[in-house]
Amino acid sequence: MADHKKRFEIIIQKLRENGQKITPQRMAIVKILAKSTGHPSVEDIHDEIKKDFPTMSLATVYRNIVLIKSLGEVLELGFPDGRNRYDGNKPYPHPHVICIKCKKVIDSNLGSLDDLKDEVAVETGFKILNHRLDFFGICSNCMAEKV
Amino acid sequence: MADHKKRFEIIIQKLRENGQKITPQRMAIVKILAKSTGHPSVEDIHDEIKKDFPTMSLATVYRNIVLIKSLGEVLELGFPDGRNRYDGNKPYPHPHVICIKCKKVIDSNLGSLDDLKDEVAVETGFKILNHRLDFFGICSNCMAEKV
DNA sequence: CTCTCTGCAAAGTGTTTGCAGGGTC
DNA sequence: GACCCTGCAAACACTTTGCAGAGAG
């Protein structure tokens, strides 16, 4: 089974277990999140779904993302421009590389921060629950453009 | 000369070099940013200054932060709760450790990410300009509280 | 049949901007 | 004296919320 198909089933299952109802809108949102390799914003998701579902409301997207986030099944990428992006395919913390020109976001597969996390915990006395590591720069496409 | 005094002079000097005028409001803002070990929000800064300067406007704080940010003399910490914090004492990227209960932010002195940055650049083809590394958790104070 | 979910519109929150008067250089 | 800066209030962008009707289980 394809990876994003699996993720879709997992999220839907988790919703069911929590007594949530499976509405068509909810399925459409989960479907996009499950294969969210493009790190869509709420508006991206809304636009995408409106193609087949013209009455879909932005509020519904927001509400469902809050819900799925509370189940730990989607990762929110806080964005400097105030437009958050979401990753429901890899909902655990992992490094992102972000182009400040075209806003493209790609995942990096490098570097576990577990050691550093432990060191920081000792240094500060915190119990570390979570982290985020983002690199900002210019992607090769944007660099190639002579603007 | 104390560290934050030095930072104050550096920022003021940089403003002068850029042809900006040194107003009392601006000095007050720079003074707080220069010793911003507490990582104040815009509202924190505004509140602090209003004690001696009751007519100080929020808009002025925002405008000055944009200006100083454009000179590279203050670091903006994007916050999940949408209330940004600022560090004008160490304006270069460095790891932060954030308590999700009391919102306290402290600096970590560990870990250079230069190696990782180079690896990510090779992996993705990006030219990396910047990064951010934040750990979220519970500080020892909040852990001690039986709430 | 019950109880949650949706769509709509209004309200909220943090930030930015237009304008006219005031202050720095 | 020229031009930038400030304070005020309105405008903005994103997100959240109240309500009444629709739909899942």
UniProtKB/TrEMBL annotation, chains A, B:
<dbReference type="GO" id="GO:0045892">
    <property type="term" value="P:negative regulation of DNA-templated transcription"/>
</dbReference>
<keyword id="KW-0408">Iron</keyword>
<dbReference type="GO" id="GO:0008270">
    <property type="term" value="F:zinc ion binding"/>
</dbReference>
<comment type="similarity">
    <text>Belongs to the Fur family.</text>
</comment>
<feature type="binding site">
    <location>
        <position position="99"/>
    </location>
    <ligand>
        <name>Zn(2+)</name>
    </ligand>
</feature>
<dbReference type="Pfam" id="PF01475">
    <property type="entry name" value="FUR"/>
</dbReference>
<protein>
    <submittedName>
        <fullName>Fur family transcriptional regulator, peroxide stress response regulator</fullName>
    </submittedName>
</protein>
<keyword id="KW-0805">Transcription regulation</keyword>
<dbReference type="GO" id="GO:1900376">
    <property type="term" value="P:regulation of secondary metabolite biosynthetic process"/>
</dbReference>
<feature type="binding site">
    <location>
        <position position="131"/>
    </location>
    <ligand>
        <name>Fe cation</name>
    </ligand>
</feature>
<dbReference type="InterPro" id="IPR043135">
    <property type="entry name" value="Fur_C"/>
</dbReference>
<feature type="binding site">
    <location>
        <position position="102"/>
    </location>
    <ligand>
        <name>Zn(2+)</name>
    </ligand>
</feature>
<keyword id="KW-0678">Repressor</keyword>
<feature type="binding site">
    <location>
        <position position="139"/>
    </location>
    <ligand>
        <name>Zn(2+)</name>
    </ligand>
</feature>
<keyword id="KW-0862">Zinc</keyword>
<keyword id="KW-0804">Transcription</keyword>
<dbReference type="GO" id="GO:0003700">
    <property type="term" value="F:DNA-binding transcription factor activity"/>
</dbReference>
<feature type="binding site">
    <location>
        <position position="142"/>
    </location>
    <ligand>
        <name>Zn(2+)</name>
    </ligand>
</feature>
<dbReference type="InterPro" id="IPR036388">
    <property type="entry name" value="WH-like_DNA-bd_sf"/>
</dbReference>
<dbReference type="InterPro" id="IPR002481">
    <property type="entry name" value="FUR"/>
</dbReference>
<keyword id="KW-0479">Metal-binding</keyword>
<dbReference type="InterPro" id="IPR036390">
    <property type="entry name" value="WH_DNA-bd_sf"/>
</dbReference>
<keyword id="KW-0238">DNA-binding</keyword>
<dbReference type="GO" id="GO:0000976">
    <property type="term" value="F:transcription cis-regulatory region binding"/>
</dbReference>
